[in-house]
Batch of 2 targets.
Target 1
Amino acid sequence: MALRDQFPILQREVNGYPLVYLDNAATTQKPQVVIDAMNAYYSESNANVHRAVHTLAGEATEGYESCRTKLKQRFNASKAIITSGTTEAINLVAHAWGRANLQKGDAILLTEMEHHSDIVPWQMLAEERGIELRYVPVTQHFTLDMEAFTHALDGAKLVCVVHTSNVLGVRNPLEEIIEASHKVGAKVLIDAAQGVPHSTVDFTAFGADFMAFSAHKMCGPTGIGALLVQPDAFEEMQPFMGGGDMIETVTIEGSTYQTNEHKFEAGTPRIAEAIGWSAALDWMNTFDLDAEHARLIEIAAWVAQELRSMGITVYGRHGEHDAAVVSFLHPTINSEDMAHLLDARGYAVRTGHHCAQPLLTRLGISGTVRASFYIYNTRKEAEGFVQEMKEITEKFA
Ligand code: PLP
């Protein structure tokens, strides 16, 4: 079956028009195999994981742990902690590694391109511990100011950087950042929420100490994500949430903890979601992601060029390794109005600050309209979108 036909939601209409889903940077749609895997768990194998010996518990445990195994295989990682998403994964680093390893006067280097989920946890820790936060500026070419990065790196203990901007689609020079950071002894956290849906990463070769991402941006369910950790950084992490499953023994006097990833997965985990993500990871192996990425970035670059030719400002550069995200602002039509006009014809796009207010402040704007493309989007849909934008511009501008 053609890739696109495997997504039941793409058959629906919105306001009497076929749905054209261009809000993929917010969340992607799910193929039937993911929906089926989650339904099968609830209708056939529902049980809690890890403790009981009965058949259903065994099936649930196997399903949950298969997600971890597949994550390790796909990203060549030795430690994969399952979290509720990118946000929890970053907060986990702040609590489990940051609190154990950072003290008053230490510095964390962030960038102005970060999503709020890679800013706010560090602001909270900085306030609690008296840590200095430094921000690498974004240039007028929508890239990180690497000269400023080099200067700000001196004395930093941790560098946190977004793999690919959710507003601009720009992929950062991560290899250079990781190498330079390690030279000064700083650990590196990559927010790969928008990166890994578009490209495969060999985490061990890549060398970042921590990498966070969410299943729902790569055809998996909501409510689940992962934190990949290199073995030495893993040893430096202290448990954050206490409770069932993360312990080895508990007495009235105290507790001892698991030594593997379970140490950071207290309580009943996201079993159905892990089973759904496991199915999504298998499914992602059925096509060539690099080829899809090349096709999508070509579409995005073409859309960006067409919008610019209509007098619309486009934010981003749409280079070979960037994500297929087109953020734009019409000179006279308000973003919310634009999104409503598009929705009236079946086009789903996002507006607003995209949880990246410092970046938008740097760009001198308060929001954009964002059209983001993923593997099931077609050139024909992009052409329809451009045509619709022309008609809206002619009618309302
Ligand atoms: N980081 C980036 C770059 C994102 O685009 C997002 C989500 O939009 C997040 C972090 C947060 O992801 P989640 O809400 O799945 O935790």
Target 2
Amino acid sequence: MPTTTAKRNILIASSEVWPLAQTGGLAEVAGSLPGALAQLGARPAVIMPAYQTVLDKKPDHFKNTGVSLAVSQGGQTIKGRLLRGELEPGVPVYLVACDQFFDRPGLYGYGGQEFPDNPERFAFFCRAVLAALPSLEHPPDIILANDWQTGLLMPYLIELGLDKPRGVFVIHNMGYLGLVPPEKWPVLDLPDHYNNFDGLEYFGQSSLLKAGLVFSRALVTVSPSYAREAQTPEGGQGLDGAMRHHAHKLTGILNGVDYKVWNPKADRFLPANYCVRSLKGKRLCKAALLAEMGLPSTAVDLPLIGMVSRLTAQKGLSLVAEAAEDIFRTGAALVVLGSGEPVYEEMVRDLAERFPDQCRAFFGYDEALSHRLIAGSDLILVPSMYEPCGLIQLYALKYGSVPIVRAVGGLNDTVRDFAGHNPEGFWDTGFKFSQFQDKALVLAVRRAVDLFAQPADFRALVKAGMKEDFSWNSSAHKYLELFEKVLE
Ligand code: ADP
């Protein structure tokens, strides 16, 4: 239950917000948490950069507020503008416009190359957020900043010396450190005493993620398991010492799902809808997916494994490549939707060429196809090296597509490993494996395929997963409780 009596104003600063701009799960969190907070009586608003893609996609959606944002950076004054729209009724979304930094294709890079001026771009964004504060309808009590792109907000708030807003920082992925080479330190406009071991310094460079980690009032990771793993040398990406040092202010809060968007009963992207009481539509989704991906229609009776993933080392595609022969020997087929690094794209393309009757891949970012693929698959594979929370497995559960996951981070916290028949009915929801090894992955796939061959039991597992509730409600409560603690 909410412990808050006051209506708190929460400003969520994020470099991506669904449905305006997205490269991964962060956007979905920044796009759906505000609505959940509003439902619980808080007053959320969102602020993000005015990327070219956002303005192109929704040209009439945003109004110029007339507020000009002047930011000094490395001795220069850079001017920005504040635009305003609505994320949903009653939830404002502010855009920080600055053509020199955001009027270009791509969010953080283009054509496989990071933008070299990312430190300047996001230092500017953070300064501009603070410059915009006096012009917002509701002065925030809390600024909720997310990942390296907004990490600088935390030391900037300290430098501002105000009692409010207070800064809470969320780490969605420690793999992205937001590194700044020493020669660029001046563009951050922070006093030099911030650039040491207890500050932003990271092995001779500066880390914007560490800025948020160290200088926030409270720190969140997006699952309890990840909060523990991030404090270990294996999981801490070189920041495990800092995570341990700041463990007193660290909480793990699972991300929630927006079931208005992710619900097989009402999903407008699907060729047929279905629900836990009637799974007929799911079989139609599977047949349509096989046809769309060019797999034989006879495969409709065989287990179909799906993957929707950023193609990066984190997501465990190398494991899939190593295990491929054994996976396909089980008779299962595999469909992959992914975008990201060329080396992993090549790896997946090679699989599709070697196993043309059992493997198909689509490369690119395709929201509609991601829904069709999750609905049409029997099993969803998430073999990540590490996974702070993971959303795919949560969608898979709701869509009756049994997750096969590596037991790390949020994957471990949200899937219960099938432990055999239980006279009281099915309680488990998927298949887990621990070691990051192809043999462990193959074993989990075999267990899943074996159960698939027993339709009544497999259906029971499917239905147990569909009944799971990962809506925002409980996590949004936890955020509100945390905000109250920070405001005490
Ligand atoms: P991460 O944030 O590390 O990428 P998550 O599982 O938390 O992983 O979230 C990934 C989100 O991005 C999911 O909503 C997934 O559907 C979406 N996604 C990833 N790759 C693609 C793609 N190629 N096309 C469409 N959606 C994708």
